[in-house]
Amino acid sequence: MKSNPSKKKVEELRNRLVRKPQLVWDVLGPGEKKKAFEFAEGYKAFLDSAKTEREAVRLIEAFAKKKGFKDITEADGGRKFYKINRNKNIVLAVVGKRPVISGVNLIASHVDSPRLDLKQNPLYEEVDLAFLKTHYYGGIKKYQWLTRPLAIHGIVIKKDGNHLDLQIGESDHDPVFTIADLLPHLSRKVQNEKKVSEAFEGEKLNVLVGSLPLGDDETKERFKLAVLEYLFDTYGIVEEDLISSEIEIVPAGRARDVGLDRSLVGAYGHDDRVCAYATLEAVDKLKTPETTAVALFIDKEEIGSDGSTGAKSRFLESFVADLLEVTEEQAGEKALRSCLMSSKALSADVNGALDPDYQDVHEKRNAARIGYGICISKFGGSGGKYGSNDANAEYLAEIRQLFNENSIVWQTGELGKVDEGGGGTIAKFLAIYGMEVLDCGTPVLSMHSPFEIAGKADIYMTYKGYSAFLNSR
Ligand code: MN
Ligand code: MN
Predict the structure, then answer these.
(1) How would DSSP label each residue in 269-304?
(2) By CB distance 3.0 to 4.6 Å, which of 112, 194, 226, 329 could disulfide with 199?
(3) Angstrom distances, CA of residue 428 to CA of 197, 317, 323, 343
(4) Position 46 in a domain
(5) Which residues pair with 353 in a beta bridge?
């Protein structure tokens, strides 16, 4: 039998054998720490000007043009390309040294976030107040959207086909909007005694937009009419124009530093603009990579990836076909399939961080934590990995090695306890092509709320991790 080793030996053994998660702040030197804080400044500016998928696409397009990317549908050569899909979905590529057909390094994030969309016939009046009816988009806890300042972002296509971009509620001079909630004195039966899921109804998420009447007390629907008059005078919009519109109600206001030490960012839409921004910055710093780098920014993730701008559409496929053509490699179905099959992807999406007040829903040994760096998740799904991509061990080994070699502080994250709930990402829709896919992103507190929290250390490590990936072979 072996004799019990000395205390020192045991400690040596522990250091050699046990994985110890690292806190990013413990690892970063003062210079890097400063960089992490600076990185967050650019990110906050991105959050403020990209609250919807359309705004994000516009911003990414402007970035692409500024950095010399060419619209691939018009290009006849070059190394940097982009393509836009219906103004809600964009992809960038930097062609590498190896042929495109040998596969690309893809980072795919999404630029839509949970919110309230206007209904087709939204405008009405009730008890001498004017409202807009909404239908929520994505998984929200409805009560979080009540009694807070809201802004209107969107697009209206008028009957003559003209586009009108709307944004009301973000500038200091703008009014904001809100959804009223019942006073506590009267909420005992209709809210307090009910289950939360039943106490707040989607049909009651009505946005207050006015209380000035038009005409006299003989005038029919004079509060609604007053709003219509304002919309027509200001924007030339008539009621029917709202049918061909996409107007999104989002939390008003800017991204803010959170905490006395300013180490966190609070904002609407970290999910998933944090991964989108980290990807964009990684693309920006890219020279000529070994392997062609592709950054896909997708829409409709929050409602299941359906729709022509979602991950289930074949936009990526079509872009890679364009890439093969423009680089004058083998074109055709077989080349396309072969390229996609040999590609590697990070499904860049946030993960729910361990909630200090609800630790019981997490399995602490496997939950992502604020401050511990970029998070990789082998699988998501629910009820026995159902609906999950479940990445291959070989690919995990590769990414783990890549991160270790590049001093990326990383952690693993599983969304909640087994059988507690769960959720999916676009990983499985990328996996359809036979490429390697791994979920990899930033841990976030209060996910899907109007004010989500992410750590500056983790945001910075996400960028560093994506950079290392795009620079890998
Ligand atoms: Mn997401
Ligand atoms: Mn989400």
Answers:
(1) THHHHHHHHHHHHHHHT--S-SSEEEEEEES-GGGT
(2) 194
(3) 29, 15, 23, 14
(4) yes
(5) 368
User: Could you give the number of structural domains in the chain?
Assistant: 2
Question: What separation in Å is there between the alpha carbon of 116 and the centre of ligand 2?
Answer: 14
pLDDT at residue 421, as a whole number: 80
- Cα 301 to middle of ligand 1, angstroms: 7
Ligand nearest, relative to CA of residue 449:
2
H or E element at residue 438: strand 436-441
DSSP string, 383-421: TTTBT-----HHHHHHHHHHHHHTT--EEE--SSSTTT-
User: Is 13 among the domain residues?
Assistant: no
Ligand minimally distant from the alpha carbon of residue 109: 1
Which one of 218, 251, 284 terminates a domain? 251
Distance 185 CA to ligand 1 centre (A): 37
Q: How far is the CA of 273 from the centre of ligand 1 (A)?
A: 9
Ion ligand 1 neighbours, Cβ < 5 Å: 271-272, 349
| Residue 459 DSSP symbol | H
Residues of the chain with pLDDT under 70: 1
Residue 348 structural domain: 19-113+268-470
Mean residue pLDDT across the chain: 96
Cis before 272? omega within 30: yes
- Answer with the one of 224, 251, 278 that is the final residue of a domain: 251
Residue 58 maps to a domain: yes
Is 80 in contact with 286 (CB distance < 8 Å)? no
Does residue 426 sit within a domain? yes
Tokens of 189: 């039966």
Please check whether residue 252 is in contact with residue 115, taking contact to mean a CB–CB distance below 8 angstroms.
Answer: no
Residues 102 and 119 both lie in one domain: no
Structure tokens at 434: 């036979």
